[in-house]
Design a protein that fits this description.
By secondary structure, the protein is mainly α. The protein folds into two domains: about 70 residues, no CATH class; about 230 residues, MetI-like fold (Orthogonal Bundle). The chain is about 75% helix and about 0% strand. The chain contains 14 helices and two strands, in the order H-H-H-H-H-H-H-E-E-H-H-H-H-H-H-H. The chain has a two-stranded antiparallel sheet. Strand 1 and strand 2 form a beta hairpin. Helix 6 crosses helix 8, helix 7 crosses helix 8 and helix 12 runs antiparallel to helix 13.
């Protein structure tokens, strides 16, 4: 275990270094933030003063090494627009994004696993076929179109839910969330459901496939021959053995939900990191964009490590020393 964790930490450091290099130079090539931040009517003196204040008068390599030195101390720069630490600005928006992503993933699991299990146990039934047809729609329908349609139907036409915003929040056990209020739940319903549809369809198909592959196995036949109740056979012997691919998918999809909620947060005016990223790109706010992508990279590294560890818990036959290569 110790050797595995140390090796993954070294891999993580190398990954972060390469990511920082690529991201910094890619963002640098997008454009000059001075053109967006400075009034076009400003004179040359004001222009040069702004360039020096933002550190843009140095070469790109100097800027990168200054960034790298500060990043090792936990400082990834100050926002050009808000003049506050970029990481602090992102972390202020992180709870809202995390709340939305967790809710979406919870919905995908609570709905996807039971439906996939039913479709796997009764594949020829009308309900089983309908579930699989619905999962195909979840894959096929464009996410942007789904979100707009959901707003038009449930917010505009029926008026059941608000069309945007986070709603009222409350604090419980030191955690501030909109999930603790009725108004907050009504606001998060539409974005969470629309965000969960693709993952839900994926979970349904993975669960169904896993059930169909597992049921003919000898250990399932032996469990039934021992006289175990069918509910115990399904819940213990079937579900436990099909959870590894589902854990993999949920880990990656959760990371994607946190990192790439840009469309969802923009359409539903959800005050999370995705909306901040769009605003920062529009204003060429380099420190915020770089800090966001670095945070996302760290999050994916942590999720992959956690998934590897969960593998070992679910199936002791999975060796930690090999799980990293198996994942890739």
């Amino acid at each position: 275990m110790t050797v595995f964790v140390i090796r993954r930490l070294f891999q993580s450091i190398l990954t972060l270094f390469v990511t920082s290099l690529l991201v910094f130079f890619a963002v640098f090539a997008v454009g000059n933030p001075i053109d967006v931040l400075i009034d076009p009517g400003a004179d040359q003196i004001e222009f040069e003063r702004a360039v020096r204040a933002l550190g843009l008068d140095r070469s790109i390599w100097e800027q990168y090494f200054i960034f790298l030195e500060n990043a090792l101390q936990g400082d990834v720069g100050r926002s050009f627009v808000f003049n506050t630490p970029a990481l602090e600005l992102i972390l202020q928006r992180f709870p809202a994004t995390l709340e939305l992503a967790l809710t979406a993933m919870l919905l995908a699991n609570l709905v996807g696993i039971p439906l996939g299990l039913y479709a796997g146990l009764k594949p020829e039934s009308v309900a089983g076929r309908s579930i699989m047809a619905g999962s195909i729609l979840g894959f096929s329908l464009p996410g942007f179109w789904v979100k707009v349609t959901v707003i038009m139907v449930f917010a505009v036409e029926l008026g059941w839910f608000p069309a945007g915003g986070r709603g009222e929040t409350a604090t419980f056990l030191g955690i501030t969330s909109s999930l603790f209020t009725i108004d907050g739940l009504s606001h998060i319903a539409l974005p969470a459901i629309s965000l969960s549809l693709f993952t839900m369809a994926l979970v349904i198909r993975l669960t169904r496939s896993g059930v169909r592959e597992t049921l003919p196995m000898d250990y399932i036949k032996f469990a039934r021959a021992k006289g175990l109740r069918e509910s115990r056979v399904i819940s213990v012997h079937v579900l436990k053995n099909i959870m590894i691919p589902i854990v993999t998918v949920m880990g990656l999809e959760f990371g994607g939900a946190v990192a790439f909620t840009v469309i969802t947060e923009t359409i539903f005016s959800w005050p999370g990191m995705g909306k901040l990223l769009i605003d920062s790109i529009n204003f060429l706010d380099r420190p915020v964009v770089v800090a966001y992508i670095m945070l996302v990279a760290m999050m994916f590294i942590g999720i992959n490590l956690l998934v590897d560890l969960v593998y070992a818990v679910l199936d002791p036959r999975v060796r930690l020393s090999d799980s990293g290569s198996n994942n890739t």
